[in-house]
Write a sequence for this structure.
């Protein structure tokens, strides 16, 4: 196509840059960027945003900033990509500053990224104000955004706010439940972990995943609830999609060892598909 300049349009460069993102080919992406400038397609919003997204995926915040600053009228996609780039490169404060300088309403994707930045900083006050903005301005609930806010409250230790949001969510998925279970487990509220897990299984809204169960097994070890841990083990056995492998198998072994149930721990060890150093030497 390079020999036929008239065949180029914004779709050509957008798809070429998308391919470079998948390949993580920085050099080829820069070649496409040079071709964009040479063929005078840089003024196209689609191409500008594709270039910006490419540099963000390459974690090249310098070139991403240069592209963003070169866009005369950045749209919400441009702003979101730039905020995401700062957040991805761990310039979390810069991500929030960029968000505050937006001259247009953010979308739900923008707000998810900002909530993630607030979680990293532990910025409870600012995160609450962003949550308030979501409640006032967004007419439709978004489960991805709700989960981001839920994770934010849990990471900041605001358990009451997290619980209030969780109870009032119109729809919850496995990530919502796991965020609550994990948050309580990390702060030592093991009784709450057990109650939530039992509610999750009995309610059949969603099925627990590996991360959920690992947190529950950790809680069982802490509150010395062997019978509950055995029940969780039975639950795992009844789920053919849950393979005793990695952290799940290790969590079971660790629990039984803590209770002195060495024989049962050995039985679990023998069924592991893949064993690592933690499997061989549980704490």
């Amino acid at each position: 196509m390079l020999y036929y300049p008239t065949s180029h349009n914004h779709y050509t460069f957008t798809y070429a840059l998308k391919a470079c993102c998948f390949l993580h080919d920085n050099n080829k992406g820069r070649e496409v960027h040079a071709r964009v400038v040479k063929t005078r397609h840089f003024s196209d919003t689609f191409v500008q945003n594709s270039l910006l997204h490419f540099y963000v995926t390459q974690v090249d915040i310098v070139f991403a900033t240069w592209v963003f600053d070169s866009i005369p009228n950045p749209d919400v996609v441009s702003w979101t990509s730039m905020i995401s780039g700062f957040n991805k490169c761990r310039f979390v404060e810069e991500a929030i500053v960029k968000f505050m300088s937006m001259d247009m309403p953010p979308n739900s994707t923008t707000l998810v990224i900002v909530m993630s930045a607030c979680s990293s900083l532990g910025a409870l006050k600012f995160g609450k104000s962003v949550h308030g903005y979501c409640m006032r301005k967004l007419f439709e609930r978004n489960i991805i955004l709700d989960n981001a806010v839920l994770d934010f409250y849990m990471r900041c230790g605001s358990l009451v706010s997290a619980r209030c949001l969780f109870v009032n969510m119109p729809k919850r998925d496995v990530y919502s439940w796991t965020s609550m279970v994990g948050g309580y487990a990390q702060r030592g509220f093991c009784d709450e972990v057990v109650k939530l897990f039992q509610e999750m299984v009995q309610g059949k809204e969603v099925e627990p995943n590996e991360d959920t169960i690992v947190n529950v097994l950790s809680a069982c070890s802490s509150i010395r609830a062997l019978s509950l841990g055995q029940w969780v083990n039975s639950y795992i056995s009844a789920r053919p999609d849950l393979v005793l492998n990695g952290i799940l198998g290790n969590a079971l072994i660790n629990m039984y060892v803590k209770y002195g149930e060495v024989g049962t721990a050995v039985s679990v060890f023998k069924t592991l598909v893949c064993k690592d150093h933690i499997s061989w030497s549980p704490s």
